[in-house]
Amino acid sequence: MGFQETFKALSDPTRREIVNLLKDGKRSAGDIVSHFSSTNATISHHLSILRKAGLITDEKQGKYIYYELNTSVIDEIIGWITSLKGEEQ
Fold first, then answer.
1. Contact at 8 Å (CB) between 20 and 2?
2. What does pTM read for this prediction?
């Protein structure tokens, strides 16, 4: 995973809100879209960027696509940020 791509994906407020929605579990694309006033195409673009950055995964179930937070990437980010603090004395 590249931190640059991850942080770039998280720099957008809409994408951060999508990540926030997914913290409670997987959601369908339609459910995600319903939380925003943007078009389906715009939200699809945001989902694509988050997926490319490894922050979310997608799974097709029947005619629906479900998105889920990739917590391993979040754990990597937290670990890196924590390491910046160094050892506590």
1. no
2. 0.86
For residues 69 and 23, is the Cβ–Cβ distance under 8 A?
yes
* φ, ψ of residue 80 in degrees (nearest 5): -65, -45
How many other C-beta atoms can be found within 10 angstroms of the C-beta atom of residue 49?
Answer: 18
pLDDT digits (tens, 9 = 90+) for 54-82: 999 999 999 999 999 999 988 988 898 89
Structural domains in the chain, CATH included, are: 1-82 (1.10.10.10)
Structure tokens at 63: 């005619």
CA-based torsion, 36, 37, 39, 42: positive or negative: negative
Residue the block writes with tokens 């957008």: 12
Pseudo-torsion of CA 55, 61, 62, 64, nearest 10°? -40
